[in-house]
Amino acid sequence: MDPRLNRRQEELIAIVQREGFAGVDELASHFDVAPQTIRRDLNLLADAGLIRRYHGGVSAQSSVENVAYAARQSLQAAEKNRIAASIAREIPDGSSLFINLGTTNEGVGRALLDHRDLRVITNNLNIAILLSDNPTFEVIVAGGLVRGRDHGVTGEATIELIRQFKVDFGIIGISGIELDGTLLDFDFHEVRVAQAIIEHSRQVFLGADHSKIGRNAMVRLGDFSHVDAWFTDRPPPDALLPILEAAGTQVHVAGS
How far apart, in whole angstroms, are the C-alpha atoms of residue 246 and residue 2? Predict the structure, then answer.
């Protein structure tokens, strides 16, 4: 299911991800709507696999399993597009780059289509097909195991190919950002590919919207010391500011 979420439903997901659990009455009071309205929202979001429904309330999704790919494509779609455009503006023509998995990164691929002479290595088949439409691009697909759910490629062969290159920019996504600066994801194999990208990129760009802050995921990718620039849609919370400064990570907030 790929729901078209309204602003209340998007904010509801962010609250549940931040708090871990929320009750129906609490949410109804927060949004100043009837409990029946909140229950309809919760049932829709639970059917889409975005939250877990319990009697009297909801909890965040599991830290060991990501939201379904089709559902993720609809979450914060406008914000992701702004982030993608902001990243693309920082990529000069004639650059070499890695692009890994994620719906935000697919937006980056679309935003790069008006560039020229890019050399792109990717483990995302959706991005590879998209970018191959530009005749000035050279697109290299990393080999490995193809995941049916999102057409991502992971595994030892993927990592070995990435290690053959040193590129100008590594563009990565993430599933969760803790307030101590830890970057988290759900898939161990995907994290290992991202770590190889970080190691073999001269600059690392992270694209992650505000909903990733405080979100649970069980696999540690690293921290902001590995990220040169973070592209997001809202100013970071105060707790992250000294961590970002100590890491030397630039923050680009994409405008509305």
Answer: 39
Highest CATH level, class, for 72-253: alpha beta
Q: Which of 164, 158, 111 is nearest to 134 (CA)?
A: 111
Task: Indicate the fold that domain 7-61 takes in CATH.
Answer: Arc Repressor Mutant, subunit A (1.10.10)
Per-domain residue ranges of the chain: 7-61, 72-253
Mean pLDDT of 8-34: 83
164: left (phi over 0), alpha (psi -120 to 50) or beta: alpha
Q: How far apart are CA 55 and CA 57, in angstroms?
A: 6
Average pLDDT over residues 164-170: 98
Amino acid, res. 204? V
Q: Report yes or no: 254 and 83 within 8 Å, Cβ to Cβ.
A: yes
Sequence-separated (6 or more) residues with CB below 8 Å from residue 43: 53
The verdict on pTM exceeding 0.85 is no
Tally Cβ neighbours within 10 Å of residue 160.
13
Give 243's contacts (C-beta < 8 A, 6+ positions apart). 180, 181, 223, 224
Contact assessment for residue 6 and residue 78, using Cβ atoms and an 8 Å cutoff: no
